[in-house]
């Protein structure tokens, strides 16, 4: 490609990324990819000044302005910062400054990953807040900023002052906001920065207040009126009552500055909010004007960017997940690898275009990072390690129901259009786990929806594979170690659930809880049931043609058999046992019956109790363990209540006896 075309291409891609990131708060590429493109463009423009353009993104601040907000013209521009990416480049920055001035020190501060705002105070009272926007003009977000709890609305001194800082969202608030978005069926925020920026540009201040934003201040407009150095400035802000990040350090020279980097990198991993680097600034304010500015940023300060953690691993396979809308997402199954403190064994591949664009193949060595806080993503392929991998091919039928997939025009995604696709139908999963079926505590509707949206759950067998993703689950919004352990325990426990609940949980048409039990009395194992003929089924007194044909149809579907065999391999109980004596809680207990039972005669109820090892007696005494009470119970009920005998309803009796 000729240089000029590359320059134009980079400008176009960067401009597009800027709009997605700054105006729509929805990044398309990683910050690292963005930074590398901008760096390449900067270098090309320096080398080939003949292609210079005052509108190049290297000379402009990337932010947009939403029409919904009043515009605010900044008293002095809000600038960006240059970037350096390693020690050598940081030394380069230091040396450049040193060519213009000497006898200076450097303040280093954490670079808080949020969005910049300018705040105006008059007579010590908060008056106005504005976003950076395009650097010259920003959005008036006063009402929203007012909701930030840690921001003082009145300062310790009644002065006129304009200060600048970073609004950010803590990890805890970020997770909370994303849980809410999931519940509302909205797209997740990609990371806390986008969540903070999206929130501050919300039209409804009440929503902003709920999101719990935070702020650190780090600059004063016309600071020399108040202080001499950046260090004094930070202390003065604190004195006025502003939140100031406590981790700043002053270095006398480049070596000292560089010695701080690894300390900061260790520190930041322990903080409850995101930082993406260190900002270094010449400490002496009187030197700033001498050192000067570029079109976009000061030359007396720069940002040292930490490298986001990336790890290399192998793609063992590519699975396809069906979303609630029917959208098909390819997911890379990885050789597990530790990234930013947790094991990652799967990563999203987004869609066909993404995979083909990066030419990602099974058995490739790839670089993986965590996009935002949540979803691991494959960044690139290590082509040096490629042997003879087959190119990726998108599937054309639904991995769950087998229907033909459609790619809508103008979209990168394929969809399963089958309305009855169980992959789309999260409700079949919700039903399976629910109290009335397998009764997997902790796997309620909300959790199923979340895990389905995040592609961990697709089909029933996926429930029993969740333990493979324990580490990843603990990182999810709204989850923690305890919650995940409870969930996995409950899933494990459900393997011994009674077989009739399992059959009911499968959601076979017309097979409710009662019918499931009835079927199993005649066909007590999964093999018996799978092999039951239509004739044998309708031979059962209460089973009609509708149920019989539905059962036969269900078990003649290859996909269902595969699924059941997979579940069987996980050790799920697939045999029906009428519980007998010793192990049943009725064993050795004395019952008295009273009132009218709806579903049984007294004789039937008595024989059930006896079969389970209990005794039935005719009068209530202190030796009675249970009074089974139907409707219109009379004196026996009163006596039982007086004696404190447990009164069991017919409902509970049915549940406990599985009848
Ligand atoms: N992923 C994408 O598509 C995409 C697109 C555009 C921009 N970006 C990201 O945004 C960056 C560009 O944005 P930018 O122009 O705001 O530059 P920047 O974020 O790299 O640096 C400038 C900003 O740093 C912030 N900051 C945080 N702590 C600070 C401190 N202690 N002192 C001073 N400033 C501090 C301020 O908001 C300031 O405006 C890129 O480097 C990239 O990482 C990503
Ligand atoms: Zn389907």
From TrEMBL:
Report domain BRCT positions: 581-659
Recorded E.C. number(s)?
6.5.1.2
Q: What cofactor is this protein dependent on?
A: Mg(2+); Mn(2+)
> In its UniProt record, which GO terms are filed under biological process?
DNA repair; DNA replication
EC class:
ligase
Name the reaction it catalyses. Answer: NAD(+) + (deoxyribonucleotide)n-3'-hydroxyl + 5'-phospho-(deoxyribonucleotide)m = (deoxyribonucleotide)n+m + AMP + beta-nicotinamide D-nucleotide
Work out whether the entry's keyword set contains Manganese. yes
Cite the GO molecular-function annotations of the record: DNA binding; DNA ligase (NAD+) activity; metal ion binding
Q: Which GO CC terms are listed, alphabetically?
A: cytosol
- List of residues binding Zn(2+): 398, 401, 416, 421
**So where does NAD(+) get bound?**
31-35, 80-81, 109, 132, 166, 281, 305
UniProt key word DNA repair: yes
Query: Where do the catalytic residues lie?
Result: 111 (n6-amp-lysine intermediate)
Q: Which CDD domains match?
A: BRCT_DNA_ligase_like (cd17748), LIGANc (cd00114)
Record's keyword terms, sorted = DNA damage, DNA repair, DNA replication, Ligase, Magnesium, Manganese, Metal-binding, NAD, Zinc
What the record says about family reads: Belongs to the NAD-dependent DNA ligase family. LigA subfamily.
Stored HAMAP family: DNA_ligase_A (MF_01588)
Matching NCBIfam families: dnlj, PRK07956.1
Q: What does the record give as the function of this protein?
A: DNA ligase that catalyzes the formation of phosphodiester linkages between 5'-phosphoryl and 3'-hydroxyl groups in double-stranded DNA using NAD as a coenzyme and as the energy source for the reaction. It is essential for DNA replication and repair of damaged DNA.
Name the record gives this protein: DNA ligase
